[in-house]
Amino acid sequence: MGSVVLFLTLTLLAVSSSTVKSCPPSDRAALLAFKAALHEPYLGIFNSWTGSDCCHNWYGVSCDPETHRVADINLRGESEDPIFERAHRTGYMTGYISPAICKLTRLSSFTVADWKGISGEIPDCITSLPFLRILDLIGNKISGDIPADIGRLTRLTVLNVADNLISGTIPPSITNISSLMHLDLRNNKLWGEIPRNFGRLRMLSRALLSRNHLSGQIPSSISKIYRLADLDLSLNSLSGPIPDSLGRMSVLGNLNLDGNKISGTIPASLLNSRISNLNLSKNAIQGQIPDVFGPRSYFTALDLAYNNLKGPIPKSIISASYVGHLDLSHNHLCGPIPAGSPFDHLEASSFVYNDCLCGKPLKAC
After folding, report:
1. What are residue 220's phi and psi, to 5 degrees?
2. Residue 9 three-state SS
3. pLDDT score for 354
4. Which residues does UniProt assign to the signal peptide (predicted)?
5. How far is CA 21 from CA 59, 105, 106, 169, in A?
6. Which of left, alpha, beta for 250 (phi over 0: left; psi -120 to 50: alpha)?
7. What's the N-to-C CA distance of the chain in angstroms?
8. Contact present, 92 and 116 (Cβ < 8 Å)
9. Is 109 left (phi over 0), alpha (psi -120 to 50) or beta?
10. Of 46, 232, 288, 340, which alpha carbon lies 20 to 30 A from 91's?
């Protein structure tokens, strides 16, 4: 009798163990509904989405080892995976992102990137996923707005929806995501102003907002983001002055403001800072170039072309530690070009279309 009980106990344990180790039927059903809204005609990446256990050998799906709930979906249309190498092509997928994805309540990362043909909108319910840390939808044809209550995703560290057709404004609630480190909204159709309290995103290291229709002024609160290393606001319709405080940021290395409607003068702080790539070209900036270059000035690229700058080229620029690429063309500068580095390796194209610059590499004064 004891052996029978032992046998039954072991059998029940084995059954419960196998059940626990597979994903819940509800997660499997959500994944299949997500798959049903998409069409991938060339690579067959969804061919592996069969069987009862979505935690094992389902392409792009990973589960939490303890709870066996779906934790990660990682589907990239540009990948070094053997599936792509054998096909000798990048991925292409059409369809839309089904709201069924929101039933995966333990989802930590959701990447559906570079499929070129996925359209529709970002499901609003995605903001109800409490554990979501990565949302990466770059390189599709997704339209509509960024969900208004995106700020509910308080654990989010990466928000990347670049290279889509997203419109509307940047939701004010985005500044509630205190854990956000990487924000990429480039190449969309966003309009309106950058939230004034953008500086609340204290953990942000990259803020890439270029190629949109953003207007208004650059929020001075950005300078409070002490981790920010890369700020790209280029090719928008931003206006007003450049906040002087941007030049006093401790780790800002790339500042791209080109192709806007920015006016005012160049803050002196920008030229004697940690910024090594500074692009202010194609704006309406006036006044003289501040004569404040020094040993801290180290520029791999300094582009001030296509503005309304006047006066001489500052002599202090020869005291900069390094100036790689320099473009001062299409302004109203006048006077002799300083001799020596960095001017001894620059071409005439760096200085053309000014009022009266002279000296090498232009004509002699």
Report:
1. -65, -20
2. helix
3. 97
4. 1-22
5. 18, 18, 16, 43
6. alpha
7. 111
8. yes
9. beta
10. 232
Q: Do 194 and 214 touch, CB atoms closer than 8 A?
A: yes
Q: How many CB atoms lie within 10 A of CB 70?
A: 27
How many Cβ atoms from other residues are within 10 Å of residue 205's Cβ?
Answer: 15
pLDDT band at 1; cut points 50, 70, 90: very low
* Residue 96 banded pLDDT, cuts 50, 70, 90: very high
For the record, the structure tokens of 243 come out as: 């906040």
Report yes or no: 75 and 60 within 8 Å, Cβ to Cβ. Answer: yes
Residue 12 has pLDDT above 70, yes or no: no
How many angstroms separate the CA atoms of 301 and 195, rounded? 29
CB contact at 8 A, 116 and 139: yes
276/298 Cα distance (integer angstroms):
6
Q: What is the pLDDT of residues 33-77, one digit of tens each?
A: 999 999 999 999 999 999 999 999 999 999 999 999 999 999 999
